[in-house]
Amino acid sequence: MGTLYSASGRVSGKVVLAFLLSGLPAGVIGGCMAMFVAYMPLSGLSTVAALIVAALVLSVLLGVTLNAILRLAHVRNRRVGHVLALFSGMVATYSGTAAFFWIALRTGGTEIPVPQALRPDFLLEMLSTVDALSAAVQTLLIVIVVLAFAWIPAVISQRTTSAPYCEACGLWCDEFAPAVYLKPTSAAQLQKTIEAWDLEAVLALERATDQDRAMDIIETARCSGCRDFATVRLKRVHHEYGGKTTVELRMPPHVAPGVDVEMLAALLEEAD
Ligand SMILES: [Zn+2]
Predict the structure, then answer these.
(1) Which residues keep their CB under 5 angstroms from ion ligand 1?
(2) Are strands 214-222 and 230-239 parallel, antiparallel or unpaired?
(3) What whole-number distance in Å separates Cα of residue 162 and Cα of residue 159?
(4) Segment 66-123, tens digit of pLDDT
(5) pLDDT > 90: what percent of the chain?
(6) Burial class (CB in 10 A: 0-12, 13-18, 19+), 84
(7) Cβ–Cβ < 8 Å for 230, 261
(8) Buried b (16+ CB within 10 A) or exposed e, 21-45
């Protein structure tokens, strides 16, 4: 019987390396944000809007990078992903603040060595020179940036940390690929059939054709190392007039019993 897939929560020893590695992209992204703030050609409200857009874009970039690092480190624990995102968000904000003051001093004609700009006591001193009102505004901006830099990568990290993983082989599954296209079926009936893992009954359901605007797609993600582990999920795809497509996840990934993986493999080959 198929059961809901849930990540084991385990991490590999490479998680330490993941934290060390994440500092580099986080530092670079913080530096990019600082350059953006320092050389901003806009003024007033458009500055704030541009800053928010820049923070969002850079946060997504950071999230994508962290995802790759979590995948390399075989992290199957959401919380570890969140902590890594928070850590990187803090590194990005710290390095961004240091880079901002470094650029500001340089523009004013004072060059200071980079290691000095990175020192916490120097940063505190620089922050204390800013007057009260702009200090409040800057604090608010920093809070927004930290939230964006930590929260967005944390959400993105779940894509990796909750992805199907074969614990026996120590490998991530391949990406989800469509196995069967069905005509829209009652969610309750289909979920019952899939949870009971009655593949014969699933195959007996009417298949979708190219003419169908809506279809239920059974997708599988299989272990790249063995033929015993696979997960199955169910999606409803709706093609609307005008080319718009909506996708709805009707059943989250369930573990398919190994015995039926061969049948699934045959189905996948048939679909190709
Ligand atoms: Zn495997």
Answers:
(1) 166, 169, 223, 225-226, 229
(2) antiparallel
(3) 6
(4) 999 999 999 999 999 999 999 999 999 899 889 988 998 898 899 999 999 999 999 8
(5) 37
(6) buried
(7) yes
(8) bbeebbbbbbbbbbebbeeeeeeee
Written as six digits, the tokens of 66 are: 């962290």
CA of 222 to the centre of ligand 1 (A): 8
The candidate with the shortest Cα–Cα distance to 221, out of 212, 213, 230, 229, is: 230
Q: What is the largest CA-CA distance in the chain?
A: 77
Distance 98 CA to ligand 1 centre (A): 46
* Euclidean distance between CA atoms 87 and 90, whole angstroms: 5
Q: From ligand 1's centre to the CA of 217, what distance in Å? A: 24
Mean pLDDT of the chain: 85
Ligand 1 geometric centre to CA of 54 (Å): 41
Residue at 175: amino acid letter: E
Distance from the alpha carbon of residue 196 to the mean position of ligand 1, in angstroms: 22
Backbone angles phi, psi at 108, to 5 degrees: -80, 5
**d(CA 257, ligand 1 centre) in Å:** 13
Helical spans, DSSP H, in the chain: 15-38, 45-72, 78-107, 114-117, 120-128, 132-161, 187-195, 199-204, 261-271
Give the other-Cβ count within 10 Å of 76's Cβ.
Answer: 22
Ligand 1: distance of its center to the CA of 230 in Å?
A: 8
